[in-house]
Amino acid sequence: MENNRLALLFYALALGAFFFVSFNFMKSEGYLIQKTPQNNIQFWPTNWDVDDAIASRINEASNQSDYCKRPERYEYWDGYSWAAKDMKCMDICTSDSTNDCLENSERWFKEDSGVFFPTYFFDKVTIRDDSTHERRKSPQLSYFLKGIEDMGIGFDHQYSVINPQGELEEGGSNLKESTVTNQETQQVQSHGKGLRTILKDSSGNVIQEWEPGEVVNLKFATILEAGGVNIDKLDKNLGENKLETAEITDAILTRLSGTEIDIHMSYHNPKPLSSFSLTENYNSADWDGPVAYLTIRSRSAWASKPQIQILDKIGSQRLRYYHGIRIRFVPAGSFAWVSIDHILSGLTSVLVFVGLAKKIVIFFSLHFLGPLSDMYKGFAFQRANLNKEVCALASRLASHTTAFKELSDVPDGISMERLERRFKRVFKHSQDLGGNEIRNFVTFMFGVLDTQGNGQIDVEEFTKACSHGEPLNFKSLVALLDTDRKRKFLEAIFSGPPLLKVDAALEQMEPDLESAKSNNDSSPPSSYSGQANSEDLVKQLGDLERYLKEEIPILKNEDAVLRSEVAKLHGQCQITKLPNLLGTHLSLPAGKHGNGIHKPVDPPLTKAWLTSSSRPDLPVEQQIRLDASVSQIAKESTCPSPLQSHASITRKSPAAGAQKPVSGDKDIASTDNVRVDLKVLDNHTPRPQNLTVEKRDDPTQGKPAQRSRDCCGI
Is the pLDDT confidence value at 1 over 70? Predict the structure, then answer.
């Protein structure tokens, strides 16, 4: 069923899913293989070893700062154990310094992943008496340190990464070119330009650049500016000041607490498909080599570094507890290459989500639209009932034989010429197909359908073609009805109740003549006594059956009403003539009536048993064969049958009410959808006797009139 609104809903969901998945795929750069390179850094402080002139200048400039003029303003106590009181500013040592001063070597400390620059320290000294070994603690001394802004940091850095081809790519800031190494052969080749280093601020603006081969040198003031750090700023994130006499109660000076700064080093190669990227583009117009972006980030923290110094041999010591700026290097970044596998994976994700839109629409239409959903369920889900499917297929096969009979123009089927004429009618108004094209099509189709290669399409070939595409096809139906076929183990287990019922019904039916003969069954369908024994009868009927099968193909879809009428006529003639033909009288089969004793029966009962219309327990094929046998026996008697006469059988169509007379060499009975053709035996000369069966309504009584028959004087 077409529903434009549901179609619009599906397209809307499908487009939404397509754009959503595509956007996320492009934004995450799912089409790339990305690997994080390893790095190696060699760093050192700069401008720390100053001469007397520079040291004096730094000391004089720092004396003008507020923390040196009014250090008491920044006194702090955390309420537990740490306190900064009675603070002073300590000068950098010069050659003429006499007071306590800071040596150049104490202005920085190298750590595993960075450098620590102290801005404040306090001393706690413990003195041991040499004679008494008593411990004596001196008062705590606290100092601000000068000149941190004039120092800097320098470093060289290198990267290495394994590319998708398994090769090792390497480069560094101190190298003019990058290289690639084959790990199997260890052959080193140039891989293009060296590593460019670029410093950016938090907004992404370039502050400074270093070309390959140049040493990266960062001044401390530049680091503080790029990281947005001001060491003379009050930091309110580290707790309140619990000192009662404090001037500043809700913050602490950053120079006093210290802070931590991370230099993120992000390595990238020229990004493939950068024009399609929705993320940051690391490529630049004047550089197509690898690049390292430096970004500086800071965070509020208590950055400290304690040191214990032994003063003498008896164990006197000094604890110097530094606070300051800790700078660390953090490697990051990624090298990227285009991956066909990732692209295919992304396309698969798109198709999956688009298919999900279809499932959502189907679920919505099947459950949320009321009666309309019930209608859609009927189209979407088909309940399979084997019994009904078998009957339906059999009915369709029977109806196909009507079309076959209408098309047949040769004794046993349809010729190619007949099909060509029909298709010329079908394509009569088609301007695109000519006679040769239609003939080629018919030739192709005929060659496919004529599986026996006898130049005609018989009824089995025709019905097989018509039933192609059925859920239960012709071959499956034959296998189902074949009681001689041995069921396999798993087939027998999983057949289910419907199949078991069909098998049980087929097994209860009497075997046909061919099965009886092939199995050497000595019990024919009926028992005879007298001159004709059962074996002779089986032989006669078997010969008759083969003759009918080879020479007179009888269709299996006769109109049941018409067949009943013909059978009754046969029976009227056979009542008195069959005993003469067989030279004896008929008896019922053993077990039919009374303990298996063969008892003579009257002719009407014999007719009732022989006539197929009275044997609904037989399959259709056996009924037809039995009908044919009765007809042949009747012809050999002195009684003429309908098959021996030029008969004209007229029936009124229930739909149109029109009379359909057919007469000639063939007795043809037609209804609205069934056509029956019973051929006259070629080796029998029919007697010139007419038999007419009419079924009319009595216009005066409003009831069907009595049927009149003319057969053997009855």
Answer: no
Those residues whose C-beta lies under 8 Å from the C-beta of residue 509, and which sit 6 or more positions away, are 617, 618, 619
**Element housing 128 (H / E):** strand 114-128
Distance between CA atoms of residues 601 and 587, nearest Å: 6
Q: For residues 644-649, give the mean pLDDT.
A: 36
Residue-by-residue DSSP string for 541-584: HHHHHHHHHHH-PPPS---HHHHHHHHHHHHHHHHHHHHHHHTS
CATH 2.60.490 domain position(s) in the chain: 34-338
In eight-state DSSP terms, residue 215 is P
Question: Confidence class of residue 629 from pLDDT cuts 50, 70 and 90?
Answer: low
Mean pLDDT of 585-590: 36
Quick one: average pLDDT of 26-30?
85
Question: CATH topology for 34-338?
Answer: atp-gated p2x4 ion channel fold (2.60.490)
Within 13 Å and on the Cβ side, how many CA atoms surround 455? 4
Q: Which amino acid is at 464?
A: K
For the four alpha carbons of 364, 366, 367 and 370, in that order, the dihedral sign comes to: positive
The residues, any chain, with a CB within 8 Å of residue 342's CB and separated by 6 or more, are 30, 31, 32, 33
**CA 571/CA 283 separation, integer angstroms:** 102
Query: What element of type H or E holds 291?
Result: strand 291-300
Phi-psi map region of 530: left, alpha, beta (phi>0 left; psi -120 to 50 alpha): left
The 8-class DSSP code of residue 106 comes to G
| Alpha-carbon span 177 to 193, nearest angstrom | 5
Q: Is 250 exposed, middle or buried (0-12, 13-18, 19+ CB in 10 A)?
A: exposed
Which has the minimum average pLDDT: 176-190, 274-288, 367-381, 477-491?
274-288
pLDDT in tens, 209-248: 999 989 999 998 899 999 889 999 999 999 899 999 899 9
Position 55 scores a pLDDT of 94
CA-angle at 682, arms to 681 and 687, nearest 5°: 70
Torsion of Cα atoms, 363 then 367 then 371 then 373, to 10°: 10
Average pLDDT, rounded, for the chain:
74
**The pLDDT of residue 187 is above 50:** yes
590 within 8 A of 527, measured Cβ to Cβ: yes
Q: How far is CA 537 from CA 337, 577, 640, in A?
A: 89, 16, 22
CB contact set of 551 (below 8 Å; sequence gap of 6+): 681, 682
Helix, strand, coil fractions of the chain, as percent rounded to 5 = 35, 25, 40
Q: Give me the residue label for tokens 């229930």.
A: 654
Looking at the predicted structure, is the pLDDT value of residue 485 above 80? no
* pLDDT tier for residue 266 given thresholds of 50, 70 and 90: very high
How far is Cα of residue 630 from the mean position of the Cα atoms in its chain?
Answer: 62
pLDDT at residue 606, as a whole number = 44
**Which one, of 102, 94, 115, 105, lies nearest residue 146 by Cα?**
102
578 contacts: CB under 8 Å, gap ≥ 6: 586, 603, 606, 633, 637
| Radius of gyration from C-alpha coordinates of the chain | 54
Q: Is 352 helix (H, G, I), strand (E, B) or coil?
A: helix
